[in-house]
Amino acid sequence: MSMDTRTGARERAKPMPHRIVVLALAGVSAMDLGTPAQIFGPGTSPTLVASAEMTDGRGVVPGGWPYDVEVCTPSPGVVAGADGLDYSIGSGLDALDRADTILIPGAASAVESEPSGAVIGGLLSAFERGARLVAISTGAFVLARTGLLDGSRATTHWSYAKELSQRYPAIRVDENVLFVAEGRVLTSAGAASTIDLCLHLIRQDHGVGLSNQVARRLVAAAYRSAGQAQYVPRSVPEPLGEVFADTRQWALEHIGEELTLKDLAANAGVSVRTFSRRFVEDTGYTPMQWVLRARVDLARELLENTDLGIEQIADQVGLGTGANLRMHFQRILSTTPNEYRHIFSAARA
User: Fold this and answer.
1) How confident is residue 181, by pLDDT bands cut at 50, 70 and 90?
2) 281-309: string of b/e by CB count within 10 Å (b at 16+)?
3) Given a cut of 90, is residue 92 above it in pLDDT?
4) Which domains does the chain show, CATH number per domain?
């Protein structure tokens, strides 16, 4: 076999990019439509392309970006969006046939009218062949119409949660979370939570390292848990939130040490009872739940980027023993540290 032939065979063996298709309906939200394209596209950042080249996760294209983004609409042409914005979209519903993941942005028509049979049929066909379906904000109303949310948890923007529940009583609507991941069907809350959900998908596909790179480019929080409250009326002045942010940063800097609720409250300068109550109001987690998840998240990065053993990682992140790390990993991520490392560990020189 000639060198050219061998090179051609290797190129043909490269995995294809994961195709993201964004379905734009009438009255589509500009942020809901633009955010996936921004997040799943590499932009002009050489750092992100380099990260993709280094990642040895599922579906990564060596030397390239692991995602390809396409926007489609039921009738190609000009689509009227929200807030007086119009969009020229050239792809029709046949793009759904090529999708590995379909995102349905929030849109006025999603709430005000029933989606066409062609839209529902395209979504169901894509799901049946293994595609992942993701609803953003009021896009949950379109996904609900397929029946794929029946009997499952889902969310939408808090101001539409009651209406979604009334229209589709078979869905267990949770208005107090940023997003819900039920296998290959996912739903998210308001526009900002779209970032959290898209970063979750990148973590799921390619690990924490690449999602953190994308978050840095967006100047966004690298990780906000799905269970964080999407809408919490504040009963405390804003400066107190800043104090707690400093305490969370302090906790991250001391994550490998023993941290107690009393330690955190002392750092924040308030009583244990006050700290606990206001921490839950701010984050949707108790302080120690937040610390545990921060420890698991750091363990994920160490599993991806180092050769440290399980016991060493458990000690570095403050979980004490490998048994503890395995237990919390299984409970939070539904996998084991070794399985996670096998799937997501970065290729190192």
Assistant:
1) confident
2) bbbbbebeebbbbbbbbbbbbbbbbeeee
3) yes
4) 15-218 (3.40.50.880), 238-344 (1.10.10.60)
Region 106-123 average pLDDT = 91
Q: Which long-range contacts (CB under 8 A, 24 or more apart) does 157-165 make?
A: 157/106, 157/189, 157/190, 157/230, 158/189, 158/190, 158/230, 158/231, 160/111, 163/111, 164/140
Please provide the distance, in angstroms rounded to a whole number, between the alpha carbons at the two ends of the chain.
29
* Other beta carbons within 10 Å of 64: 15
- For residue 349, give every residue at least 6 positions away whose Cβ sits within 8 Å of its Cβ, in sequence order, or none: none
